[in-house]
Amino acid sequence: MFELIKMEGRARRGRLKTVHGEVETPAFMNVATSAAIKGGISALDLVGLKCQVALCNTYHLHLRPGDEVIRDLGGLHKFMNWQRPILTDSGGFQVFSLSSLRKITEEGVHFASHIDGRRIFMGPEESMRIQANLGSTIAMAFDECVANPAEYEYAKKSSERTIRWLYRCKEELDRLKADGVAVNKEQMLFGINQGATYDDLRIDNMKKIAELDLDGYAIGGLAVGESAEEMYHIIDCVEQYMPQNKVRYLMGVGTPLNIIEAVSLGVDIFDCVMPSRNARHAHVFTWSGKRNLMNAKYERDTLPIDPECDCPTCRNFSRAYIHHLFKAQEMLAMRLSVMHNLYFYNTLMQKIRNALDNGTFNEFRKRVSEKIDKRI
Questions:
Q1: pTM for this predicted structure
Q2: Domain segments of the chain: what residues?
Q3: Active-site residue identified among 89, 215, 268, 306
Q4: Strand, coil or helix: what is 237?
Q5: CATH T-level topology, domain 2-272
Q6: Amino acid 95: pLDDT
Q7: Which SS3 state, helix, strand or coil, does residue 284 take?
Protein backbone atom coordinates (compact mmCIF):
# COMPACT_ATOMS: atom_id res chain seq x y z
CA MET A 1 0.00 0.00 0.00
CA PHE A 2 2.99 2.32 0.46
CA GLU A 3 5.69 2.63 -2.16
CA LEU A 4 8.97 4.26 -1.16
CA ILE A 5 10.14 5.80 -4.43
CA LYS A 6 13.42 7.41 -3.40
CA MET A 7 15.28 9.05 -0.54
CA GLU A 8 17.56 12.03 -0.05
CA GLY A 9 19.31 11.53 3.26
CA ARG A 10 16.42 10.47 5.49
CA ALA A 11 13.82 12.48 3.56
CA ARG A 12 11.43 10.15 1.74
CA ARG A 13 9.53 10.48 -1.51
CA GLY A 14 6.67 8.00 -1.62
CA ARG A 15 3.19 7.05 -2.75
CA LEU A 16 0.36 5.75 -0.55
CA LYS A 17 -2.16 3.63 -2.46
CA THR A 18 -5.69 3.49 -1.07
CA VAL A 19 -9.15 2.43 -2.16
CA HIS A 20 -9.97 6.14 -2.62
CA GLY A 21 -6.94 7.00 -4.71
CA GLU A 22 -3.22 7.53 -4.43
CA VAL A 23 -1.51 10.07 -2.17
CA GLU A 24 1.83 11.49 -3.25
CA THR A 25 4.05 11.95 -0.20
CA PRO A 26 5.25 14.00 1.60
CA ALA A 27 1.69 15.30 1.94
CA PHE A 28 -0.33 17.62 4.15
CA MET A 29 -3.85 16.62 5.23
CA ASN A 30 -6.34 19.47 5.35
CA VAL A 31 -8.30 19.42 8.62
CA ALA A 32 -12.06 19.20 8.10
CA THR A 33 -12.95 18.39 11.72
CA SER A 34 -16.73 18.20 11.31
CA ALA A 35 -16.61 17.24 7.61
CA ALA A 36 -15.85 20.83 6.58
CA ILE A 37 -12.90 23.21 6.73
CA LYS A 38 -13.69 26.08 9.09
CA GLY A 39 -13.91 29.29 7.09
CA GLY A 40 -16.52 28.29 4.51
CA ILE A 41 -14.43 25.85 2.46
CA SER A 42 -16.26 22.98 0.75
CA ALA A 43 -14.96 19.68 -0.62
CA LEU A 44 -15.28 21.17 -4.11
CA ASP A 45 -12.97 24.02 -3.05
CA LEU A 46 -10.42 21.54 -1.70
CA VAL A 47 -9.90 19.97 -5.11
CA GLY A 48 -8.79 23.33 -6.51
CA LEU A 49 -6.59 23.94 -3.47
CA LYS A 50 -4.48 20.82 -4.24
CA CYS A 51 -5.75 18.88 -1.22
CA GLN A 52 -4.99 15.16 -1.42
CA VAL A 53 -6.41 14.02 1.93
CA ALA A 54 -9.08 15.45 4.22
CA LEU A 55 -8.93 14.78 7.96
CA CYS A 56 -12.16 14.47 9.94
CA ASN A 57 -12.71 13.86 13.65
CA THR A 58 -14.39 10.77 15.08
CA TYR A 59 -15.47 12.37 18.36
CA HIS A 60 -17.06 15.45 16.77
CA LEU A 61 -18.90 13.51 14.06
CA HIS A 62 -20.11 10.97 16.63
CA LEU A 63 -21.73 13.81 18.57
CA ARG A 64 -23.06 15.68 15.55
CA PRO A 65 -24.71 14.59 13.28
CA GLY A 66 -23.99 11.06 14.58
CA ASP A 67 -21.94 8.32 12.93
CA GLU A 68 -25.04 6.18 12.36
CA VAL A 69 -26.65 9.06 10.47
CA ILE A 70 -23.56 9.34 8.24
CA ARG A 71 -23.52 5.53 7.76
CA ASP A 72 -27.18 5.53 6.71
CA LEU A 73 -26.45 8.35 4.23
CA GLY A 74 -23.75 6.30 2.53
CA GLY A 75 -20.63 7.12 4.53
CA LEU A 76 -18.45 10.17 5.00
CA HIS A 77 -17.23 10.42 1.39
CA LYS A 78 -20.75 10.62 0.05
CA PHE A 79 -21.93 12.82 2.93
CA MET A 80 -19.38 15.58 2.29
CA ASN A 81 -19.02 14.92 -1.46
CA TRP A 82 -15.28 14.23 -1.26
CA GLN A 83 -14.00 11.36 -3.40
CA ARG A 84 -10.34 11.42 -2.36
CA PRO A 85 -8.89 9.80 0.79
CA ILE A 86 -10.17 10.72 4.26
CA LEU A 87 -8.36 10.03 7.52
CA THR A 88 -10.44 10.01 10.70
CA ASP A 89 -8.76 10.93 13.97
CA SER A 90 -9.84 8.39 16.56
CA GLY A 91 -11.08 10.73 19.27
CA GLY A 92 -7.89 10.16 21.26
CA PHE A 93 -6.86 13.79 20.98
CA GLN A 94 -10.05 14.75 22.82
CA VAL A 95 -8.69 12.70 25.74
CA PHE A 96 -6.09 15.48 25.88
CA SER A 97 -8.04 18.56 24.79
CA LEU A 98 -11.12 17.85 26.95
CA SER A 99 -9.12 16.94 30.05
CA SER A 100 -11.54 18.77 32.34
CA LEU A 101 -14.47 16.77 30.93
CA ARG A 102 -13.15 13.20 30.98
CA LYS A 103 -12.06 10.25 33.12
CA ILE A 104 -9.65 7.61 31.80
CA THR A 105 -9.90 3.91 32.73
CA GLU A 106 -8.46 0.73 31.23
CA GLU A 107 -11.72 0.21 29.35
CA GLY A 108 -11.67 3.64 27.74
CA VAL A 109 -12.60 7.26 28.42
CA HIS A 110 -15.76 8.71 29.95
CA PHE A 111 -16.53 12.15 28.47
CA ALA A 112 -18.95 14.91 29.16
CA SER A 113 -20.02 16.25 25.77
CA HIS A 114 -18.63 19.74 25.14
CA ILE A 115 -21.92 20.54 23.38
CA ASP A 116 -24.60 19.65 25.93
CA GLY A 117 -22.82 17.90 28.81
CA ARG A 118 -24.33 14.46 28.20
CA ARG A 119 -22.21 11.50 29.23
CA ILE A 120 -20.28 9.64 26.52
CA PHE A 121 -18.04 6.60 26.72
CA MET A 122 -15.41 5.89 24.08
CA GLY A 123 -12.89 3.08 24.13
CA PRO A 124 -10.98 1.25 21.41
CA GLU A 125 -13.99 -0.79 20.30
CA GLU A 126 -16.33 2.22 20.26
CA SER A 127 -13.83 4.29 18.29
CA MET A 128 -13.46 1.54 15.68
CA ARG A 129 -17.22 1.08 15.38
CA ILE A 130 -17.73 4.80 14.86
CA GLN A 131 -14.95 4.98 12.27
CA ALA A 132 -16.32 1.89 10.52
CA ASN A 133 -19.68 3.68 10.27
CA LEU A 134 -17.97 6.77 8.85
CA GLY A 135 -16.20 4.66 6.23
CA SER A 136 -13.01 6.70 6.18
CA THR A 137 -10.03 5.58 4.12
CA ILE A 138 -7.76 5.50 7.17
CA ALA A 139 -8.87 4.89 10.74
CA MET A 140 -6.59 5.96 13.58
CA ALA A 141 -6.18 3.77 16.65
CA PHE A 142 -7.59 5.08 19.92
CA ASP A 143 -4.83 6.44 22.17
CA GLU A 144 -4.11 8.86 24.96
CA CYS A 145 -2.25 12.05 24.11
CA VAL A 146 -0.34 13.17 27.22
CA ALA A 147 0.45 16.86 27.75
CA ASN A 148 4.13 17.80 27.94
CA PRO A 149 5.93 17.92 30.27
CA ALA A 150 4.56 14.72 31.79
CA GLU A 151 5.69 12.73 34.82
CA TYR A 152 7.68 9.68 33.78
CA GLU A 153 5.57 7.10 35.61
CA TYR A 154 2.31 8.45 34.22
CA ALA A 155 3.75 8.64 30.69
CA LYS A 156 4.92 5.02 31.02
CA LYS A 157 1.53 3.75 32.17
CA SER A 158 -0.23 5.75 29.47
CA SER A 159 2.10 4.47 26.74
CA GLU A 160 1.60 0.86 27.83
CA ARG A 161 -2.18 1.32 27.94
CA THR A 162 -2.12 2.86 24.45
CA ILE A 163 -0.40 -0.32 23.18
CA ARG A 164 -3.08 -2.50 24.79
CA TRP A 165 -5.76 -0.29 23.26
CA LEU A 166 -4.10 -0.68 19.83
CA TYR A 167 -4.44 -4.47 19.99
CA ARG A 168 -8.11 -4.07 20.83
CA CYS A 169 -8.55 -1.59 17.96
CA LYS A 170 -7.06 -4.00 15.44
CA GLU A 171 -9.14 -6.92 16.66
CA GLU A 172 -12.37 -4.92 16.55
CA LEU A 173 -11.76 -3.35 13.12
CA ASP A 174 -10.83 -6.76 11.68
CA ARG A 175 -14.08 -8.15 13.09
CA LEU A 176 -16.20 -5.30 11.71
CA LYS A 177 -14.74 -5.74 8.24
CA ALA A 178 -15.09 -9.53 8.35
CA ASP A 179 -18.74 -9.22 9.46
CA GLY A 180 -19.46 -6.90 6.55
CA VAL A 181 -20.73 -4.03 8.69
CA ALA A 182 -17.94 -1.54 7.91
CA VAL A 183 -18.90 1.01 5.24
CA ASN A 184 -15.38 0.74 3.76
CA LYS A 185 -14.28 -2.90 3.59
CA GLU A 186 -10.73 -1.74 2.72
CA GLN A 187 -10.41 0.65 5.67
CA MET A 188 -6.78 1.00 6.80
CA LEU A 189 -5.60 1.20 10.42
CA PHE A 190 -2.70 3.34 11.66
CA GLY A 191 -1.12 2.85 15.08
CA ILE A 192 0.11 5.77 17.18
CA ASN A 193 3.44 6.05 18.96
CA GLN A 194 3.27 7.66 22.41
CA GLY A 195 5.62 8.12 25.37
CA ALA A 196 5.77 11.88 26.01
CA THR A 197 9.33 13.24 25.68
CA TYR A 198 11.10 10.18 27.08
CA ASP A 199 13.38 8.46 24.58
CA ASP A 200 13.15 5.00 26.18
CA LEU A 201 9.34 5.06 26.36
CA ARG A 202 9.03 6.23 22.77
CA ILE A 203 11.43 3.61 21.44
CA ASP A 204 9.88 0.77 23.44
CA ASN A 205 6.41 1.80 22.31
CA MET A 206 7.46 2.00 18.65
CA LYS A 207 9.14 -1.42 18.71
CA LYS A 208 6.01 -3.03 20.16
CA ILE A 209 3.45 -1.44 17.84
CA ALA A 210 5.64 -2.18 14.79
CA GLU A 211 5.15 -5.89 15.53
CA LEU A 212 1.48 -5.57 14.52
CA ASP A 213 2.36 -4.87 10.85
CA LEU A 214 -0.27 -2.14 10.49
CA ASP A 215 -1.02 -0.07 7.37
CA GLY A 216 0.84 2.95 8.73
CA TYR A 217 2.34 4.46 11.85
CA ALA A 218 1.91 7.86 13.47
CA ILE A 219 3.95 9.80 16.00
CA GLY A 220 1.44 11.36 18.38
CA GLY A 221 1.70 13.44 21.53
CA LEU A 222 3.93 16.15 20.09
CA ALA A 223 3.28 19.87 19.65
CA VAL A 224 1.47 19.73 23.01
CA GLY A 225 3.81 21.77 25.19
CA GLU A 226 7.36 20.74 24.32
CA SER A 227 9.85 22.89 22.39
CA ALA A 228 10.50 22.43 18.67
CA GLU A 229 13.94 21.08 19.51
CA GLU A 230 12.43 18.44 21.82
CA MET A 231 9.96 17.49 19.12
CA TYR A 232 12.69 17.04 16.50
CA HIS A 233 14.70 14.99 18.99
CA ILE A 234 11.80 12.60 19.59
CA ILE A 235 11.20 12.19 15.86
CA ASP A 236 14.91 11.49 15.43
CA CYS A 237 14.81 8.83 18.17
CA VAL A 238 11.67 7.09 16.93
CA GLU A 239 12.21 7.21 13.17
CA GLN A 240 14.85 4.48 13.01
CA TYR A 241 12.42 2.03 14.65
CA MET A 242 9.52 2.80 12.27
CA PRO A 243 9.01 0.27 9.47
CA GLN A 244 10.70 1.53 6.30
CA ASN A 245 7.94 0.17 4.05
CA LYS A 246 5.04 1.84 5.86
CA VAL A 247 3.83 5.43 5.70
CA ARG A 248 4.80 7.69 8.62
CA TYR A 249 2.49 10.36 10.00
CA LEU A 250 3.38 13.18 12.39
CA MET A 251 0.15 14.22 14.09
CA GLY A 252 -0.86 17.84 14.63
CA VAL A 253 2.30 19.45 13.21
CA GLY A 254 2.75 22.22 12.37
CA THR A 255 4.39 25.33 10.95
CA PRO A 256 5.90 25.23 7.45
CA LEU A 257 9.35 25.12 9.06
CA ASN A 258 8.29 22.22 11.33
CA ILE A 259 7.13 20.30 8.27
CA ILE A 260 10.34 20.85 6.31
CA GLU A 261 12.44 19.76 9.28
CA ALA A 262 10.27 16.69 9.94
CA VAL A 263 10.48 15.68 6.27
CA SER A 264 14.27 15.81 6.61
CA LEU A 265 13.92 13.38 9.54
CA GLY A 266 11.88 10.85 7.57
CA VAL A 267 8.19 11.82 8.04
CA ASP A 268 5.71 11.34 5.18
CA ILE A 269 2.38 12.96 6.10
CA PHE A 270 1.20 15.78 8.34
CA ASP A 271 -1.92 17.55 9.57
CA CYS A 272 -2.53 20.75 11.51
CA VAL A 273 -5.32 23.26 12.10
CA MET A 274 -2.76 26.07 11.90
CA PRO A 275 -3.27 27.17 8.27
CA SER A 276 -7.03 27.51 8.62
CA ARG A 277 -7.06 28.76 12.21
CA ASN A 278 -4.40 31.42 11.57
CA ALA A 279 -6.12 32.51 8.38
CA ARG A 280 -9.39 33.12 10.21
CA HIS A 281 -7.48 35.63 12.35
CA ALA A 282 -5.87 37.37 9.35
CA HIS A 283 -2.50 35.62 9.68
CA VAL A 284 -1.34 34.33 6.31
CA PHE A 285 1.72 32.44 5.11
CA THR A 286 3.77 33.59 2.14
CA TRP A 287 7.04 32.62 0.48
CA SER A 288 8.55 35.76 2.04
CA GLY A 289 7.24 35.14 5.57
CA LYS A 290 4.12 35.53 7.70
CA ARG A 291 1.77 38.52 7.34
CA ASN A 292 -0.96 39.93 9.57
CA LEU A 293 -3.51 41.40 7.17
CA MET A 294 -5.08 43.45 9.97
CA ASN A 295 -2.03 45.74 9.99
CA ALA A 296 -2.81 49.29 8.91
CA LYS A 297 -0.02 49.22 6.31
CA TYR A 298 -2.23 47.03 4.08
CA GLU A 299 -5.07 49.57 3.90
CA ARG A 300 -3.98 50.82 0.45
CA ASP A 301 -1.84 47.86 -0.63
CA THR A 302 -2.93 46.72 -4.10
CA LEU A 303 -0.66 43.68 -4.23
CA PRO A 304 -2.01 40.14 -3.70
CA ILE A 305 -1.28 38.40 -0.39
CA ASP A 306 1.76 36.82 -2.07
CA PRO A 307 2.92 37.84 -5.57
CA GLU A 308 4.53 34.38 -5.89
CA CYS A 309 1.22 32.58 -5.25
CA ASP A 310 -1.36 31.62 -7.87
CA CYS A 311 -4.15 30.56 -5.51
CA PRO A 312 -7.71 31.77 -6.30
CA THR A 313 -7.38 34.52 -3.68
CA CYS A 314 -4.07 35.88 -4.93
CA ARG A 315 -5.23 35.75 -8.55
CA ASN A 316 -8.27 37.91 -7.85
CA PHE A 317 -8.00 40.06 -4.70
CA SER A 318 -5.66 42.55 -3.08
CA ARG A 319 -4.29 42.87 0.44
CA ALA A 320 -6.24 46.11 0.74
CA TYR A 321 -9.53 44.39 -0.05
CA ILE A 322 -8.98 41.51 2.38
CA HIS A 323 -7.78 43.98 5.05
CA HIS A 324 -11.07 45.85 4.57
CA LEU A 325 -13.09 42.62 4.82
CA PHE A 326 -11.49 41.75 8.14
CA LYS A 327 -12.09 45.26 9.49
CA ALA A 328 -15.72 45.06 8.35
CA GLN A 329 -16.01 41.56 9.88
CA GLU A 330 -17.16 40.07 6.61
CA MET A 331 -17.12 36.26 6.43
CA LEU A 332 -15.49 36.46 3.01
CA ALA A 333 -12.27 37.64 4.69
CA MET A 334 -11.91 34.28 6.44
CA ARG A 335 -12.84 32.26 3.37
CA LEU A 336 -10.32 34.00 1.10
CA SER A 337 -7.55 33.79 3.69
CA VAL A 338 -8.19 30.13 4.49
CA MET A 339 -8.14 29.30 0.79
CA HIS A 340 -4.77 31.02 0.46
CA ASN A 341 -3.19 29.31 3.48
CA LEU A 342 -4.37 25.83 2.49
CA TYR A 343 -3.10 26.37 -1.04
CA PHE A 344 0.22 27.57 0.37
CA TYR A 345 0.62 24.44 2.54
CA ASN A 346 -0.34 22.08 -0.27
CA THR A 347 2.00 23.91 -2.65
CA LEU A 348 4.78 23.67 -0.07
CA MET A 349 4.34 19.89 -0.08
CA GLN A 350 4.34 19.86 -3.87
CA LYS A 351 7.60 21.82 -3.92
CA ILE A 352 9.11 19.41 -1.37
CA ARG A 353 8.11 16.44 -3.55
CA ASN A 354 9.54 18.11 -6.64
CA ALA A 355 12.81 18.80 -4.82
CA LEU A 356 13.02 15.17 -3.70
CA ASP A 357 12.32 14.02 -7.25
CA ASN A 358 15.16 16.22 -8.49
CA GLY A 359 17.58 15.39 -5.67
CA THR A 360 17.59 19.02 -4.49
CA PHE A 361 15.68 18.78 -1.19
CA ASN A 362 18.61 19.83 1.00
CA GLU A 363 19.18 22.89 -1.18
CA PHE A 364 15.44 23.69 -1.07
CA ARG A 365 15.42 23.31 2.71
CA LYS A 366 18.30 25.77 3.15
CA ARG A 367 16.88 28.28 0.71
CA VAL A 368 13.29 28.32 1.95
CA SER A 369 13.32 27.60 5.69
CA GLU A 370 14.60 30.92 7.00
CA LYS A 371 12.37 33.02 4.71
CA ILE A 372 9.01 31.38 5.32
CA ASP A 373 9.35 31.36 9.12
CA LYS A 374 10.03 35.07 9.60
CA ARG A 375 7.35 37.58 10.53
CA ILE A 376 6.96 40.43 8.06
A1: 0.97
A2: 2-272, 284-373
A3: 89
A4: helix
A5: TIM Barrel (3.20.20)
A6: 62
A7: strand
